Amino acid sequence: MSEWKDLIEESKQRWEDNAYHWDDYMGDESNRFDWYDIPPVAIFCFKKCI
Q: How many domains does the chain have?
């Protein structure tokens, strides 16, 4: 179990290390894919699972 904790912490740290670059690259408005394409597909999938 300890190995998983270490992997989770390492993953979180890598994500945080990359966050500044990602935020700078994407800007304040993110991108079209995140805002317009993902939500309808996610909602459709969630409704199918219920």
A: 1
